[in-house]
Amino acid sequence: MSILEQEQLEKKYDPLDTTLKFVNRRDDLDPLFSDDDDGCLKAEMSCGHAVTPGSLTQWCRSQLDEGHYKFRCPAVVEGTKLCNKLWSYQEVRRLADLSAEEIQHFEETMARLAAAEYCEIQPCPQCGTYVERKDLTNLCVRCIICTADQKKTYQFCWQCQRQWKGAAPRSDRCDNDGCINRDLQLLQTCKTISLPEVEGVTDCPSVRACPTCGVKVEHNRQHCKNVSCPRCHVEFCFVCLKRKRKCSKTSSPYKICPSGVAPRQTSIPVWHRK
């Protein structure tokens, strides 16, 4: 058991906390929970499901790891139907009993994910200030902080993270030695994998660029061939690279597509946000 998992197990509610509604039933976020393991107070979320501070923390951490900054209840309500009610961060922070370190991690990660959903940002290599790239077809980006400090225009390459060299705008590279698109290089050189649960898929690139937003996506080799992009949340087929709804019209999620395995991508899609 990891130190993190141990910390989650040690979390417990204060039985004297009158701001929480305690309930005497199973933890709805822990499918392996047994009444024999009882001994930890459960509190009721706004959606009506019971949680412990540890299970709530673990679930919300997993959501952040998958690129989701909004937290929804995963409890099963009927058959395979999920509750899916949205929890506010304030509620999560209180009922997960987040530590100061966890609050910092949650809030920094949520801010980064929320910003990435609406714009493309990364730190300036000179001053560390986050800069937005508004033109996704131009790798030359100006840092207004460095420009003001140096009293002359400071531009850097979004791709190699060095001061810009050469003519601009450009979409492929700057003139610095070794400026290459490492994501594109990875797409072209990554190993191939099989998808054990998908009939006929034995030689598929292990990394794909999301056809909608271009972010790198990997398949965990479990379940069907469809994946959900952690940035734009569009579901697509990892095999043929079509959107899930289009691919599903011609083949089963557990069989190879009629068009076969799409070749390695030679360009990365630019996200045209609506």
- Give the terminus-to-terminus CA distance: 44 Å
Count the strands? 17
Instruction: Please provide the ordered H/E string of secondary-structure elements.
Output: HEEEHEEEEHHEEEHEHEEEEEEH
* Number of helical stretches of at least 4 residues: 7
> In what range is the share of β-strand residues?
15-25%
Strand order of the largest sheet: 1-2-3
Mean pLDDT: 90
> What is the helix fraction of residues, given as a range?
10-25%
Structural class call reads alpha+beta
Shape: flat
Report the sheet with the most strands, covering strand number, pairing sense and barrel closure.
3 strands, antiparallel
Radius of gyration: 23 Å
* Poorly predicted tracts of residues: 1-8
Summarize the structure.
This protein starts with a helix and ends in a 27-residue tail after the last helix. The chain has helices at 3-10, 53-65, 89-95, 100-118, 144-150, 182-189, 244-247; strands at residues 22-23, 42-44, 50-51, 71-72, 76-78, 81-82, 86-87, 120-123, 130-133, 140-142, 155-157, 192-193, 204-205, 207-209, 216-218, 226-228, 235-237. 24% of the residues lie in helices and 17% in strands.
What would the keywords be for this entry?
about 270 residues; alpha+beta; about 25% helix; two-stranded antiparallel ribbon; 7 helices; three-stranded antiparallel β-sheet; flat
Secondary-structure blueprint of this entry?
Elements: H1 3-10, E1 22-23, E2 42-44, E3 50-51, H2 53-65, E4 71-72, E5 76-78, E6 81-82, E7 86-87, H3 89-95, H4 100-118, E8 120-123, E9 130-133, E10 140-142, H5 144-150, E11 155-157, H6 182-189, E12 192-193, E13 204-205, E14 207-209, E15 216-218, E16 226-228, E17 235-237, H7 244-247
Antiparallel strand pairs: 1-2, 2-3, 4-7, 5-6, 8-9, 10-11, 12-13, 14-15, 16-17
